[in-house]
Amino acid sequence: PRTGEFSGENIRLGSRGDSYYEYLIKVWLQQGSSRDYHLKFLHEMYEEAMKGVRHLLVRKSIPKGLVFIGELPYGSKGTFSPKMDHL
């Protein structure tokens, strides 16, 4: 896709999806970031995806308020699952 929007039913990071987002920003940074205007779309896609991550997957634990990332195994309309794969 040409956007950073989630697609499909499973919305998660960890071993099933983090590499894609990691490489969006890594390639943009390694190729000179602001010098290479034609690669700006990589940064834009990363930023758009991270907005979605913050909105849909980032939560705070109760009662301590620790920040963590969970999953939406049944899409954005499904129930939040407070788990994440580790690498």
TrEMBL record:
Cross-referenced SUPFAM superfamilies: Seven-hairpin glycosidases
GO biological process: carbohydrate metabolic process
Cross-referenced Pfam families: Glyco_hydro_47 (PF01532)
Class of enzymatic activity (EC top level): hydrolase
Entry EC no(s): 3.2.1.-
GO MF term (any one): mannosyl-oligosaccharide 1,2-alpha-mannosidase activity
Functional pathway: Protein modification; protein glycosylation
Keywords: Calcium, Disulfide bond, Glycosidase, Hydrolase, Metal-binding
Cofactor: Ca(2+)
GO cellular component annotations of the record: endoplasmic reticulum; endosome; membrane; trans-Golgi network
Reactions catalysed: N(4)-(alpha-D-Man-(1->2)-alpha-D-Man-(1->2)-alpha-D-Man-(1->3)-[alpha-D-Man-(1->3)-[alpha-D-Man-(1->2)-alpha-D-Man-(1->6)]-alpha-D-Man-(1->6)]-beta-D-Man-(1->4)-beta-D-GlcNAc-(1->4)-beta-D-GlcNAc)-L-asparaginyl-[protein] (N-glucan mannose isomer 8A1,2,3B1,3) + 3 H2O = N(4)-(alpha-D-Man-(1->3)-[alpha-D-Man-(1->3)-[alpha-D-Man-(1->6)]-alpha-D-Man-(1->6)]-beta-D-Man-(1->4)-beta-D-GlcNAc-(1->4)-beta-D-GlcNAc)-L-asparaginyl-[protein] (N-glucan mannose isomer 5A1,2) + 3 beta-D-mannose; N(4)-(alpha-D-Man-(1->2)-alpha-D-Man-(1->2)-alpha-D-Man-(1->3)-[alpha-D-Man-(1->2)-alpha-D-Man-(1->3)-[alpha-D-Man-(1->2)-alpha-D-Man-(1->6)]-alpha-D-Man-(1->6)]-beta-D-Man-(1->4)-beta-D-GlcNAc-(1->4)-beta-D-GlcNAc)-L-asparaginyl-[protein] (N-glucan mannose isomer 9A1,2,3B1,2,3) + 4 H2O = N(4)-(alpha-D-Man-(1->3)-[alpha-D-Man-(1->3)-[alpha-D-Man-(1->6)]-alpha-D-Man-(1->6)]-beta-D-Man-(1->4)-beta-D-GlcNAc-(1->4)-beta-D-GlcNAc)-L-asparaginyl-[protein] (N-glucan mannose isomer 5A1,2) + 4 beta-D-mannose
Family: Belongs to the glycosyl hydrolase 47 family.
PANTHER family assigned: ENDOPLASMIC RETICULUM MANNOSYL-OLIGOSACCHARIDE 1,2-ALPHA-MANNOSIDASE, MANNOSYL-OLIGOSACCHARIDE ALPHA-1,2-MANNOSIDASE-RELATED
Name under which the protein is recorded: alpha-1,2-Mannosidase
